[in-house]
Amino acid sequence: MNAEHLEEAKRLLTAFPGKSSALIPILHLVEDEFGYIPEQEVEVVADLMGVTTAYVEAVLSFYSLFHRQPTGKYLIQVCRGLSCHLCGADDLARFLHEELGVERGGTSDDGLFTVEEVECLALCKDAPVVQVNLEYRPRVSKDDLQRLIAECRQGVAQHA
Amino acid sequence: MPERRLLFEHIDVPGIEGIDVYEREGGYRSLRKAVKEMSPDDVVKEVMTSNLRGRGGAGFPTGRKWSFLPKDGRTRYLVCNGDESEPGTCKDQEIIYRIPHLLLEGVLTSAYAIEAEHAFIYLRGEFKGGYLRLGRAIAEARAKGYLGDNVLGTGRRLEVTLYLGAGAYICGEETALLESLEGRRGMPRLKPPFPATSGLYDLPTVVNNVETLAAVVPIVAMGGAEYAKLGTKESAGTKLFSVSGNVRRPGNYEVELGKVTLGELLNDLAGGPPAGHTFKAAIPGGSSVPFLPPDKFDTPLDYESMRQAGTMLGSGGVIVLDDRASIVDTSLRLMEFYRHESCGKCTPCREGTMWLEQALRRMVTGDGRHGDLKTLEGLMAHIDGQTFCPLGDAAIAALGSALRLFRGEFVSCIAAQDHPLEEVAQ
Amino acid sequence: MISLTIDGREVQVEPGTLILNAARQAGIEIPVFCYHPRLASVGACRMCLVRVEKMPKLVPACTTPVAEGMVVRTDTDDVMQSHEGVMDFLLSTHPLDCPICDAGGECELQDNAMRYGSNQSRFAEPKRHLKKAAELGPMVELDQERCILCLRCIRFMREEAGDPALTLHERGNHTVVDVAEGRTFDSIFAGNTIQICPVGALTSRPYRFKARPWDLDEVDSICPHCPVGCHMALSLRHGDVLRIQSRDSDEVNWGWLCDRGRFGYGFVHQGPRLTRPLVRRDGEQVPVDWREAIAVLRRGMTGTVGALGGGRVSLEAQYLMRRWLQEGVGTAHVDHRVQPLTAAIPPAQVGRIDDIDTADLVLALDVELLQEAPVLGIRLRHVARNGRKIVSVSARRDMLDMPHQELATQDVAKTLRDISRGEGEIGQAFLRASKVLILWNGRGQAISEAIADAHRLRQGDTYTMVVGGLANSYGAEAAGLVPGPSGLDARGMLEAAAQGELDGLLVVAQDKRDFPDQELLEAALSRLRFLAVAGFVPSDLQERADVVLPLTAWVEADGHFVNMEGRAQRYFAGASRPGEVWEDWRLFAELLDYDWDYDRVLEAVRRDLPELFAADRRTGGPAPRGGYVGQPGTIVAASIFHKGVMPDPLVQAIVPPPRIFLAPDRAGALHLAEGHILEIGPGKAEVGVRPDLPRGSVMWRIGLRGAGRAVAVLASESGLAGKVK
Ligand SMILES: Cc1cc2nc3c(=O)[nH]c(=O)nc-3n(C[C@H](O)[C@H](O)[C@H](O)COP(=O)(O)O)c2cc1C
Ligand code: SF4
Ligand code: FES
User: Closest residue (by CA) to atom 7 of ligand 1?
Assistant: First the structure.
């Protein structure tokens, strides 16, 4: 973890009435920083928490938002909850897979995109829904996605 | 059929997510009234009188739940359940994102009522945006003295801590939520002990849904008796219904319980089926309840009527299917969800959902077999009422009703795959 | 008492009893998988569902306590169907490799499938593919496909062993049991998970493919490795011990063993053994018959002689040994305390292991439980969990591995006196507590006296147990293997020998490594006229002997070990004896010219030492003086995890490499730092620096060979040059 996150992690250790509660927030910090939970960070977290690495792995592997493999710069989550499913989520997912040349849960070769199909995001009234890095986009169409991809690619171009 | 907006009264006011606009529209009056003019017990009494029932799905009377807390001087906690993961349900999300101060006021008022100095709001991990908004709302409210060490000059202490989950439906179940909030795998705990006696960090804890706690705000404002006049005798007040699926105007609608039928909600408020289509069925209470066919759409939306009609009001997440939707495919989609979300602790849920999913997938992908319906029914019988927590029952509620209501569709799905129709139907 | 009916039978049970156990008491078996009598119920597998009148759903018998007037049925159609369902589900993913599974024949899944399953699994979907034959650690192998997720292993490790080394990974039907990525399962309690796994998911690597359960003989035994005296069962085939399992015992070890006990039998059959009596002739040890060996021993043990050891042999042998030394040899120089130990019997009211369950204050004086009496830690963990108090009183930190308070002190005796006078918060707790249990490592005369005083000062229940020493140190002391009034203690004997003032010495079942002062031992050995060694395995001590007497290992003979609470516990002969070994007691019976069989010996022991067999064994003796503590400035810690007298190929894997620890000032003076390696002859020891050690001190563990030598070199200090890496 970078210095700032480590600082924050240490603060979290005493932020709750029980120390154990800090684990999930700390794992969020790691996921935010790396886009996944790297092996060596599991040890860092275990040491901070004073628990075994097995324990940390047990917890993190339970939750679908923690990744064990690196993810792309943009994590695109296509909701396939029933409501979105009824409103064409499958088509969107297929479109993304083809457009970006990735499999389910896979990351594009340029490392920019990871596409996941996820369970109901509780945005059913706005189906079909897609989240990009946990920011949600209501009622998306393929055209929207096309634009989104372009924007993301450009965003990177601009940063460069 | 009009909406009756209590929670959503000001939701369309621009800037309502900020504290100034919220206050201008009357916000924080209930909290002020509670801490300045009422004792904690007074507030509990109002909630009792209001007949408010939990909006998280089970519909348990909120005042009663609060009264289970032992009076033994131990620290107590209030936990707001903002996990909202029940497919078809997106009402809490709207409160959190669009009118966060309403939730915060409800949480603070309720914490005061149950004499908890510390409340937690547990949000599902995907609600990162809501987490940030609520975070801002808390900071604003703290600056105005609504929480902190000396709430509104009364010398009372009220603290609120936000907690972001990390992706697991089961964490909506209250004991799994507590496990998760304590930094563990979100697997349900054995009950008893119930959270009221041994909850968060083994201390007495009340867990309430976002909408439930938000409803405490109008209840304190108008008085429990007034609130109880809304809705029906057993199902008092207003409730948010999320309408989604094959419908023209999906959205959250707030109506008086029992005063509107499912059909009215779907047709009058939500605009009816997409052009050129008809409704085929609806799941009225989130995906964990049985289907209702259109001939039961005249059932009023309240706990009792829904039960009589063979389903449940649940969380109020109404998913509606039109004539294009395949029931078998829908059942598969739902089973995939439950299989994915089963925590894995107990055998029937862990293995049963997987088995059901595999059998349904075969049917959908053209490999249905003779005897599959029996298998489905047998598997459901082995899950029904035998799992550790209600997720197992939730997983089979819709499928069970689908098999009863739309058996023909399953039969022809298998028969289409080269099996004689009559045999399959057996 | 609560009355209820189960399947029409009236049952009366204690309040709080689970339906499951109420049924068992009535002779009605309810099937289970996740339930284990020594673990908290979880209600996860759902195999035990029963019908209770007025309850809407079937309820788990393993989590539901009985209530007055309850009407339970375990035999209704819906209950039967529920059993069938769970069996169907479990078998749906379970591989059908029973013929090659080590659990075959003692698999709870197999058993329940026969009784409660439907005839045919309806599962026609592909089975899952997970890790098979994964070596989790030196002892344990995991087959994830066979796992039924009963969580027994996980609950045991987390709640009982206090080390969540095994955890659940992933979720739902992807859930598996595993260790952390890249880690090994190296807990000293790992073996318990093998025994409690109801299927063949966790299996024993040493026992792998060795036998089928129906070919095995089972014999009750007692663990020979530490003074807890865990109850165990030997599984034998054709006289070979193939595995050891725990026997459940309320009083002692519950259902558990540490891995030293469970796997520490390799020396019996695999190691080299002493199999024939040997006598030194012209500098060579040559095999002789017993008659001749006895004659040589008798001749050698004349003049000024002494005897050392005996804490590893049976009470029967100890008793006869003491009588022979007294009546036959006529010497008062006898001491069993070769390893550092002042007293195995505390100088006061003797505690019992089950006092742990009810004491509201436990004072642990210099006690390092995981090293000297591991299984007790499991019991003590419950004290911590139940909110009662544990205080470790020692200079050293981290002596216990469950939540406890630490009272750091350079002078344990003085601190104990302060506590007994009610000083400080702990002193207050000491006076107020309704029951106090003192655990002591048995080392230090001053502490022994302070304990005696503490007992005098406190009203009410106060008990002490010595957790240090060997499996039968208590027996040795009770039998009288301590110096008589004019006798020399262990150190005294070696010093006398080194001065040339001792003619002969008999050493019983001890290894050179047992001795904390290697220099002194060397000096003594070089001057002795006669050395006799009796034991079970060859050792560097036996190589020096004039006569060697091969004895049975504990699995080969009947006998008793007396554990730390003064409980004489019987173990039975099971394994066949190698060569010409004699029962340990027979050697001394022969020397006494008794033509006795085992029953006759036992009768004499019971007659002369009745308190060891009594139900209430609460009286401790006066503390023997002296003992043997090594050089001044060294702290000799003991551990049962070493390669000493009962060397074990299996246990090697869990024996740590030798380390010696220095107080920072001592390390500084010697220019040593953490991680330095001391290379001494063939031995090697790593240096550790511990700020919690008293100034100027060195600490090492007995039995770890390189460490002992390193300490000897450190003592001379000048010898250090060129030996540090
Ligand atoms: C599988 C499962 C999922 C649940 N998910 C939620 C949820 O997302 N939000 C919620 O408020 N309650 C959920 N509940 C219900 C909670 O357990 C609990 O009853 C509720 O939070 C109580 O609040 P209430 O009384 O205000 O309704 C769930 C229950 C189960 C069994
Ligand atoms: S490995 Fe054995 S003990 Fe552990 S959960 Fe699986 S079946 Fe149970
Ligand atoms: S034995 Fe009761 S649920 Fe497993």
Answer: B172
Tens-place pLDDT, residues B189-228: 999 999 999 999 999 999 999 999 999 999 999 999 999 9
Q: Is residue A49 part of a domain?
A: yes
- For chain B, give every domain's residue range: 19-228, 238-322, 327-424
Q: State chain C's mean pLDDT as an integer.
A: 92
Tell me: cis bond preceding B193? Omega within 30 of 0 counts.
yes
Q: Name the 3-class secondary structure at C704.
A: coil
Amino acid B320: pLDDT: 98
Among the CATH numbers 3.30.1330.30, 3.40.50.150, 3.30.565.10, 3.40.228.10, which is that of C353-466? 3.40.228.10
Q: Which ligand is nearest to the CA of B285?
A: 1
Q: Is C177 in the pocket of ligand 2 (CB under 6 A)?
A: yes
> What is the reported pLDDT for C713?
79
Of B124, B102, B118, give the one whose Cα is nearest residue B215: B102
**Mean pLDDT confidence for C495-523:** 93
User: ipTM higher than 0.85?
Assistant: yes
Residue ranges of B 54-83 with Cβ closer than 8 A to chain A: none
- Using a CB–CB cutoff of 8 Å, tell me whether B340 touches chain A: yes
Which tokens in the block code for residue C654? 């869990």
∠ CA C587-C591-C593 to the nearest 5 degrees? Answer: 115
Q: Which one has a higher pLDDT value, C173 or C622?
A: C173
Which whole number is the average pLDDT over B370-378?
92
**How large is the average pLDDT for residues C399-427?**
95
Residue A100 lies in a domain: yes
Determine the pLDDT at residue B425.
Answer: 59
- Mean pLDDT along residues C31-36: 97
Tell me if chain A has a CB within 8 Å of the CB of B357.
Answer: no
Indicate if ligand 2 lies below 6 Å from the C-beta of C197: yes
pLDDT class of A159 with cuts at 50, 70, 90: very low
**In this structure, are A133 and A78 located in the same domain?**
yes
Per the CB < 8 A criterion, the answer to whether B339 and B354 are in contact is: yes
Q: For residue B110, report the distance from its CA to the centre of ligand 1, in Å.
A: 17
Which of C41, C79, C83, C87 for a ligand 3 pocket mutation test, highest count of atoms within 8 Å of Cβ? Answer: C41
CA dist., res. A54 & res. A67, Å (int): 16
Chain C: residues touching B (Cβ < 8 Å): 41-47, 49, 56-58, 63, 81-82, 84-86, 88-90, 92-93, 122-125, 148-149, 151, 168, 170-175
Q: Is the CB of C241 under 6 A from ligand 2?
A: no
Domain of residue A115, residue span: 74-158
Tokens 């049917």 sit on residue: B363
Task: Report the predicted TM-score, pTM, of the whole model to 2 decimal places.
Answer: 0.95
Alpha carbons B177 and B188: distance in angstroms, whole number: 8
- Listed in sequence order, the DSSP H helices in C341-467 are 369-372, 374-385, 412-420, 424-432, 445-457
User: Measured between CB atoms, does A65 come within 8 Å of chain B?
Assistant: yes
Is A138 among the domain residues?
yes
The residue of chain C nearest to residue A46, with distances taken between CA atoms, is: C180
Task: Look at residue C633 and give its three-state secondary structure.
Answer: coil
Instruction: Classify burial at C506, counting beta carbons within 10 Å of its beta carbon; exposed 0-12, middle 13-18, buried 19 or more.
Output: buried
Distance C531 CA to ligand 3 centre (A): 60
Helix B210-222 and helix B29-37, axial crossing angle in degrees, nearest 10: 70
Per residue in A32-63, pLDDT (tens digit) is 999 999 999 999 999 999 999 999 999 999 99
Q: C278-342+474-612: which CATH number, 3.30.540.10, 3.40.50.740, 3.20.20.140, 3.40.50.800?
A: 3.40.50.740
pLDDT, residue C704, reads 80
Q: Which fold has domain B19-228?
A: Rossmann fold (3.40.50)
- Topology given in CATH for the domain delimited by B238-322: Ubiquitin-like (UB roll) (3.10.20)
Q: Which ligand 3 atom minimizes the distance to the CA of C42? A: 3
Q: What distance in angstroms lies between residue C202's CA and the mean position of ligand 1's atoms?
A: 37
CATH number, domain of A98, equals 3.40.30.10
